[in-house]
Each structure stands twice: as structure tokens, then as C-alpha cells.
Q: What sequence folds into this?
């Protein structure tokens, strides 16, 4: 089962996770990252690298976050791969742990 980027990444978009991915399965959108479930090899290397604590095994997603399984799969087909760390948005720290961020997702 693939890993999934959940809601806490929205508007934070730290990219520390992409540097450790051995198969380059991360995809980048305007204010969110996703994991391509067809590329993910379930290595879990990305989990401890995420400052937003937004990456979970699909079967361990927090309550109310299950929709991110389908969202990651959908957006991974639309967005381009990201393999190098970039600077986080200037206001990323302000968005950490804000609840209800799905409405801010930019496609």
C-alpha cells in the first residue's frame, strides 16, 4: 500500500521529503505535494523527513483524511515530478496544523 500526502501539507509544501525518495514518486502542485501510488515502493523514508507530519501509510491515515488516497492518485496523473528540495512558501510555518485546509488546495 502506497504512502499518502494528507491535508497538513496544503499551503505548507515543504519539500524535504522529495530528496530522500529513491523512486521519485512525488508530484508538485501549486501549494501541495502528492505521492504517485503507482510509483511509491512503500519505503517510508519520506515520513520522518516531513516537517508538517503530513505523510502516512494509506491504511494509517487519520480520521477524516481518507479522501486524500484518491486525491493523491488523481493529482499524481496531472502534476509533474519533483525531485529536488525547494524553499517552502514564506508563510508555510503559519499554516502548520491549521485544520480544514482542503478548501485552499490549488489544482
A:
Amino acid at each position: 500500500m502506497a504512502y499518502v500526502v494528507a491535508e497538513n501539507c496544503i499551503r505548507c509544501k515543504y519539500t524535504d521529503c522529495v530528496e530522500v525518495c529513491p523512486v521519485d514518486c512525488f508530484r508538485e502542485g501549486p501549494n501541495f505535494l502528492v505521492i504517485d501510488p503507482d510509483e511509491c515502493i512503500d519505503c517510508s523514508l519520506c515520513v520522518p523527513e516531513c516537517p508538517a507530519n503530513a505523510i502516512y501509510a494509506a491504511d494509517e491515515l487519520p480520521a477524516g483524511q481518507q479522501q486524500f488516497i484518491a486525491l493523491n492518485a488523481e493529482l499524481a496523473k496531472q502534476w509533474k515530478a519533483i525531485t529536488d528540495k525547494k524553499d517552502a512558501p514564506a508563510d508555510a510555518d503559519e499554516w502548520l496544523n491549521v485544520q480544514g485546509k482542503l478548501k485552499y488546495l490549488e489544482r
About this structure: The radius of gyration is 12 Å.
